[in-house]
Fold:
Amino acid sequence: MFIEILPNSDTPIYTQLMYQIKIGILKREWSYGDGLPSVRSLASELGINMHTVNKAYNLLADEGVLEKNQKGYFVSERATMASNERTKAAMQDKLKEILIDKQIFEVNEATFNGWLNELEKELEGEGKADADI
Structure:
């Protein structure tokens, strides 16, 4: 999998890594049960601190996207991801932030829905059809 980290981005590196891993799952570069690279090897490959990779992996495990055992981190089943209450709460928090910005910047429904449609089409190319949770 190709993971692109932008060190000068305003988005923290661990957050970028989390979304790159999620995109890899959408693209089916990893599927249920697949192991991810070790924290040390991925950190070395990307040229980032291993604590950053560990944080991203642990947060993905908290969300239910990854499972951790003695052998490392593995992609969770979609059913496990969908039933995770913490994931639901986290998604609702993100949606709330977006809706607050929508209202603050007075984005109308047509524009907002257009943006959503554009993003969904973009994600369809990354395996969205299989990602419906």
About this structure: Strands lie at 66-69, 72-75.
